[in-house]
Amino acid sequence: MRKYFTVFAIDWQNQFIYRLNFILWRFRNVLRVLMTYYLWISIFSSQTSVFGYTKEQMIAYLLLALFISSLVTSSPSNDNVGGEVSNGTLNNFLVKPIGYLRYWFTRDLSSKLINIIFAVGEISLLYIIFRPSLYVSPNLISLLLLVSAVIIYFLLGKLAISIVFWAPENTWGFMFTILVLMEMFTGLIFPLDLLPHWAFSTLQFTPFPYLIYFPLASIIGKPVDLRILLQSFVWMGILYYLLKKVWAKGLKTYSASGI
Amino acid sequence: MAVIEVKNLKKYYKVHQKEPGLSGSIKSLFHRKYYDVKAVDNVSFEIGEGELVGFIGPNGAGKTTTLKVLSGLLYPTSGFVTALGYTPWDRKPAYQKQFSLVMGQKNQLWWDLPAIESFILNKEIYEVPDAQYKKTLDGLVELLDVKDILKVQVRKLSLGQRMKMELIASLIHSPKILFLDEPTIGLDVVMQKKMRDFIKSYNKKYNATIILTSHYMDDVKELCQRVVIIDKGKLIFDGALDEIIKKYADHKLITVVFGDEVKSQQLAKFGQIKEFEYPKAVISVKRSEAPKIAARILEDFTVEDVNIEEPQIEDIIREVFTGKDFA
Ligand SMILES: Nc1ncnc2c1ncn2[C@@H]1O[C@H](COP(=O)(O)OP(=O)(O)OP(=O)(O)O)[C@@H](O)[C@H]1O
Ligand SMILES: [Mg+2]
Predict the structure, then answer these.
(1) How far is A169 from chain B (nearest CA, A)?
(2) Which residue has the higher pLDDT, B21 or A195?
């Protein structure tokens, strides 16, 4: 356990090296919020409520989406693991008594912490500028949903990346597609309950809404019950099991072919 | 007792044949042709505690592949391997804590941080107690003379300095076994010498078992009592360095410095002329006839100096590699 604390501490230091990169990445986040904000403002210019959301609720939703996506989707492992497997850096870890995925999960956590700190700053700023009426009522379920979301996002990403074991040359496009698709259905861009009922309930059978939408809905006081939490946990369990299997198989291929 | 035991080790890489061009790529999606690369082909050897063994062989011989199998990175195609009683590819932490794989080109240091941070991380990964860590680090830092660059960002170090740091990072857990894959590659002659001295003293001090691959014969000559030569995946020699000379060198070199004009034609009858630039000539002659021929040269010409030598180990090994069939 201690070794992972050290990983966290070192990654934390390392993050301050690429300040410009980091600032640009944060800027991208804010920009996305502003863009969606103006999109919604233009929609609300002709009507006062859209699918039951008032303008204020929508803005609150988007601001919190910024916060939650900082927590859930900031995940440098998604950008690095594939490359490290295909260029053989993974070897450095396979000869050492450390778990490679745990190592990256720890580094992700370190990145999440710094992103949250910044997100709080940005949100305060946006709050001061737009002065939306924010109503939040987080509870224990919201918290557990958030934890589950962080883990599901990590597992999903690594599961998609595992393809690199079998196709080391061309994974980037694949990863990108997956990530964009994921973002669409997570609730980052719009509240998923705007969708037609059938679409919304179908989505519940995928892991995506558990990443942003449900934790967020729970925080802004929408009725999100234990059943949803349970489903989130089930997804976490399924993905954990799948990743364990797929990764072990991948490592076997890796060790046979010596990428 | 053998620390490392390798029996009939085979490692065949399955490589799929890709035809060039787009149509080739598409074809290979549906129908892949595979062929085997026999990187290691039925190799056996044993290594005892404290031995320092040199692995040599031309490019693509299978040296790195063997070291990767021994460190558990690769599953063998067949064969039996144990090291310290463990099967390497089980990747048991208990085994991992006792060896280190050092590759010349490998990079395990955090590029943007001072090397000391990577050392601390390895200390934790290998669960080295504080006191032992301090002692080991101090020892290594002194041996390699890197005290004043410990706090410098790794990216700002020279290649040689970085190699030293890589080495320290690999040794923080005081491994009993070292796999060194071309540890002196890319270093200048002074650094090469330092690295060799270091490897020698590490071997002595910790009674560590070391396998080293290198393309520099100086490394092998200076460090290894025993060498293993592999070529095209097959083991072709395993024994003391001197034995290579005995086994493969069927000739000796006579170096003569003449006092008078000599034509190369006059020398050709004695043996193969390796070098001739008046007044000096180097002639390769049959081992058994060397004394006789030397005497005749002294008789026939005015000679200022004569010398009978064993051939250079480099030359013998080059001959072994380039397919003079010794088997
Ligand atoms: N991952 C791989 N997939 C397919 N073939 C491989 C792979 N790695 C190595 N080979 C092949 O296996 C053979 C042995 O390679 P290896 O790296 O063990 O040689 P080496 O003795 O270390 O050579 P060098 O002195 O050049 O480092 C070579 O023919 C090489 O092309
Ligand atoms: Mg090699």
Answers:
(1) 12
(2) A195
Residue identifier of the C-alpha nearest atom 24 of ligand 1: B59
Classify A120 as helix, strand or coil: helix
Whole-number Cα distances in Å, A197 to A32, A209, A211, B85: 26, 14, 19, 62
Which has the closest alpha carbon to A259: A95, A94, A88, A82?
A88
Q: Is residue B324's pLDDT more than 60?
A: no
A167 CA to chain B: closest CA distance, Å?
11
How would residue B323 be classed by pLDDT, with cut points 50, 70 and 90? low
Burial class (CB in 10 A: 0-12, 13-18, 19+), B222: middle
Pocket of ligand 1 (CB under 6 A): A 257-258; B 13, 15, 37, 39, 57, 59-65
Q: Which ligand 1 atom is the nearest neighbour of the CA of B182?
A: 27
Measured distance CA(A97)–CA(A118) in Å, rounded: 34
What average pLDDT does range B294-302 have in this prediction?
Answer: 88
Residues paired with B277 in a beta bridge? B280
Calpha distance A57→A49 (Å, rounded): 10
Element (H, E) at A143: helix A140-161
All domains in chain B, ordered by first residue: 2-245 (3.40.50.300), 250-309 (3.30.70.920)
User: Helix, strand, coil % (nearest 5) of chain A?
Assistant: 75, 0, 20
Handedness of CA A74, A77, A82, A86 (dihedral sign): positive
* pLDDT reading at B134 higher than 90: yes
Task: Look at residue B326 in the predicted model and tell me its pLDDT.
Answer: 46
Is the pLDDT at B55 greater than 60, yes or no?
A: yes
Residue B294 CA, chain-centre distance (Å), reads 36
Contact state of A91 with B89 under an 8 Å Cβ cutoff: no
Q: Which residues sit opposite B103 in a β-bridge?
A: B181
The encoded tokens of residue A115 equal: 């992103």
Spatial separation of the C-alpha atoms in residues A49 and B186, rounded to whole Å = 69
Question: What is the phi/psi pair of residue B8, to 5°?
Answer: 50, 45
- For residue A239, what pLDDT band results from cuts at 50, 70 and 90? very high
Q: How far apart are CA A73 and CA A216, in angstroms?
A: 14
Which residue among B74, B106, B117 sits closest to A13, beta carbon to beta carbon?
A: B117
pTM across the whole model: 0.87
Residue in chain A closest to B111 (alpha carbons) equals A14
Residues 6+ apart with CB under 8 A from B276: B264, B267, B282
Q: How far apart are CA B71 and CA B94, in angstroms?
A: 13
Q: What is the ipTM of this complex?
A: 0.86
**Residues B277-295: what's their mean pLDDT?**
88
pLDDT at residue B303 is higher than 60 = yes
Q: Which of B102, B53, B61, B88 lies closest to B212 in space, CA to CA?
A: B53
